[in-house]
Every structure is written in structure tokens, then in C-alpha cells.
Amino acid sequence: METWLVTGGAGFIGSNFILQQRRAQTARIINLDKLTYAGNPHNLSELRRDPDYLFQLGDIGDRPLLSSLLANQQPDAVIHFAAESHVDRSIRSPEAFIETNVVGTFRLLDEVRQYWEGLRGAKKAAFRFLHISTDEVYGSLGPDDPAFTETTPYAPNSPYAASKAAADHLVRAYHETYGLPVLITNCSNNYGPLQFPEKFIPLMILNALQGKKLPIYGDGQNVRDWLYVADHCKALRLVLAQGRVGASYNIGGRCEKTNLDVVTHICHLLDELFPQAPSVPHARLITFVPDRPGHDRRYAMNISKIEQELGWTPKESFDSGLAKTVRWYVDHPQWVESVTSGAYRQWLQMHYGADSS
Ligand code: NAD
Ligand code: DAU
């Protein structure tokens, strides 16, 4: 069995990926995670007694730690999820985004390069560095623009997107300059179980369940291309196994929705699940609030390349994926309790103001 070093595996997509891969027993996994506010080891509690899963607390910017981890564990692949990931936080406090997404990715890449250069034969030839990135590097689309392709010029608009774009460029440069066998994926908005509730869909579900306001930025007509997280994880597995070294692949759901449509859909699902709730109809909780600065109007991914080259296509429909997601948050109050700590409440208070409840 291969050994993979996964970074940021205690976050939303990383933990879904690790659970999916360990259930299928595809690889032995070491999860390097700093456990920032967004990292939650409980996401992986199912793997407590799994001898082929190891958690390593640490920072991707810690070179001595990286060097000894790589030397001791001898991974066949590095799968790099670790990042500061929330756009609103990047607007308020960009520095952590530069530290982790740019400097951290650079240090990780450089340590991995040295490790890879020391490998020999088949192990060296088969080694891969898979970098997980975002559609936000491409900037914003107008209503009639064609979807982003892998050759769309980068035009990031938020500090988060700029930091991810910088990381993508470094990864690409490490392939061109040193020959490091890299793969890059750029994915659209994910949703599903285990997503930290600062992000749009879980925030709306949890606020609605508690009868709180549902804060929609601007006019609610911004469009995102939604993908169920399990589909993203399957695409990553495929890119790792069969992707062309040095290539990047767009991943998306072919599922463009306005924010207002998404919230309205969540409200209808909750009306059906809890017809007696005092907030029914939940849509009356919708509140328009001042827009996010530099708010990208529309994202849409052209996914022809991954479909044609690797045979991947999104499987979950938005209707079934959203229903499963709402159900998951309803059924996991303890998980919600464990992540909505004092620090989380401080963020809500600072970002949405005193009347956020
Ligand atoms: P997340 O914020 O839920 O998780 C990030 C994880 O990285 C956390 O466990 C955190 O503790 C860890 N981390 C942060 N800084 C670290 C550091 N310096 N060293 C080690 N670990 C650190 O993020 P997510 O939504 O799961 O996103 C994962 C990756 O996928 C990110 O690179 C993000 O840019 C990318 N992405 C996310 C989406 C999305 O919709 N969520 C879409 C496309 C791409
Ligand atoms: O597109 C991929 C990206 O998707 C990832 O790279 C990011 O890591 C991830 O956070 C996400 O970024 P967005 O900015 O698109 O996601 P967010 O959940 O923050 O917001 C989704 C949309 O909802 C966006 O148009 C802003 C809007 N929104 C968000 C919040 C938190 C609101 O209207 N109200 C809110 O309170």
C-alpha cells in the first residue's frame, strides 16, 4: 500500500478526502495539520484505531518538522490541502493567508523537492505532489461569459484568491525548474458534511435552525458553481492516479446557482423537516446586508478536460446533495457544538455585528 502525506487533513475537504480513502483502504495516510480554528481532529475520530492513519500536529511552514516527517515516513505522494480558506477573513486579516498559503506552500514545496531528489528508481518516478487550489484564481465572470478553462488568465480579486494564485505559480515553477512531478487542481465551491459554519451553506443552515437572520451579501445575485465534497474527493483521487504530470485540472459541479436561490432552497428543506418550527417559513429570516468588498460576481468551471482525459464527472445532484447536507447538520448537534466555540462566536460578532443573532 502507498503512503501519502496529506496536509490540512483536519479541515473540511481534507477530512472528507481522508475518510473516503481510508474507507476504501487506498493508502496509508499521515495527516499534517496545524489545527487552526478550521481544523477539527474530531472529523477523523472514526480512524482512532486505524493503524494506517497517523495524525501529526504541525505547520507546513516548519522546515525541520517537514524534513524529518518526509525522511521517516517516505511518502509516495504529498496531497496539499492546508490553507487559510475563508475569503472574508482574508479581507479582515490577510497576513495569515500570505504566511500559510504562500510562504507555507513554498517551504513545503522546497522540502518535498529535496526529499524527491533523494529518491531513486521507481519510487522517484511514481512520486506526485498534488496541490489543491480554487476557481477563485481566475477572478470573476460576467453573466454571459464562458466558464473558466485551464488556460483562463489568472486575475485574483481577494487576498485569499491572490495567495492561492501565488501558491499555484510556485507549484508550477517547481515543476518547470526542478522537474518536481506536480499536479494542480482548481475546484469550485464545495459543500457537504464537516464544513466549518463560517462558510455560506452551513452558516445558513445553522442560523435558520436557530431562528437567526440569514445574512445575504449585496443583492444575493452572485453566482457560485456548487460541487458536493465527495465528488471533489473522487476527482482528486483520479487526478493523483492518472493526471498528466505538470498539468492542471478544473473541477466543478456544472451547477450554477445564485446565493438567493441556495438560501431559499435551504429554507424550503427546513420548512419540510420542521413544519412546526417557530421560524416557518424560514425564508422570512433572509436579510440583505452590505456587500463583501471586491465580491466576485460569478464563477463557473469548464470541466471538459477532466471529463475527457480522466473520465470524471460530478455524480451528486444539487437537490440530493443539499438535502443530505441539511440532514447531516441536523443530525450532528455535537459536532456543531464542538466547532462553535468562543472564537467562532467572536468571529460572528466582529463580522456580522451585534445583531447577528
Ligand atoms: P478548511 O479551512 O476547512 O481547512 C484548512 C485546514 O488546513 C485546517 O484543518 C487547518 O487547521 C489546516 N491548516 C491551516 N494552516 C495550516 C498550516 N500553516 N499548517 C498546517 N495546517 C494548516 O479548508 P477547506 O475548505 O477544507 O479547503 C481545503 C483546500 O481546498 C484549501 O487549499 C482551499 O483553498 C481549497 N479549496 C476549497 C474549496 C471550498 O469550497 N472549501 C474549493 C476549492 C478549493
Ligand atoms: O470557489 C471556491 C472557493 O469557495 C474556495 O476557494 C474558498 O475556500 C471557499 O471559502 C469558497 O469561497 P466563497 O467566497 O465563494 O465562499 P463563501 O462560503 O464565503 O461564500 C459563498 C457566497 O455566499 C459568496 O458569494 C458570498 C456569499 N455569502 C457568504 C457569507 C459567509 C453571503 O451572502 N453571506 C454570508 O454570510
In short:
The protein is an alpha/beta fold. Helices cover 44% and strands 17% of the residues.
Describe the secondary structure blueprint for this structure:
Blueprint: E1 2-7, H1 12-23, E2 27-33, E3 53-57, H2 63-73, E4 77-80, H3 87-92, H4 95-118, H5 121-126, E5 128-134, H6 159-178, E6 182-187, E7 189-191, H7 200-209, E8 214-217, E9 223-228, H8 229-242, E10 248-251, E11 256-258, H9 259-273, E12 286-289, H10 304-310, H11 318-331, H12 333-339, H13 342-352
This protein binds nicotinamide-adenine-dinucleotide and 2'deoxy-thymidine-5'-diphospho-alpha-D-glucose.
Nicotinamide-adenine-dinucleotide binds at residues 7-8, 10-14, 33-36, 38-39, 59-61, 81-85, 100, 104, 132, 134, 164, 187, 189-190, 196.
Describe the structure in your own words:
Helix 1 (12-23) links the parallel strand 1 and strand 2. The chain is an alpha/beta fold. The chain has a single domain (2-195, 227-254, 300-318, 342-352), classed as NAD(P)-binding Rossmann-like Domain (Rossmann fold), CATH 3.40.50.720. The protein has 13 helices and twelve strands. Helix 7 (200-209) packs parallel to helix 9 (259-273) and helix 7 packs across helix 11 (318-331). The strands form three sheets. The protein has a seven-stranded parallel beta sheet with strand order 3-2-1-4-5-6-10, with helices on both faces. The chain has a three-stranded mixed beta sheet with strand order 7-9-11. The protein has a two-stranded parallel sheet with strand order 8-12. Helices cover 44% and strands 17% of the residues. The radius of gyration is 20 Å and the shape is globular. The site of nicotinamide-adenine-dinucleotide has 30 residues, from helix 1, helix 4, strand 5 and strand 7. 2'deoxy-thymidine-5'-diphospho-alpha-D-glucose binds next to helix 7 and strand 8.
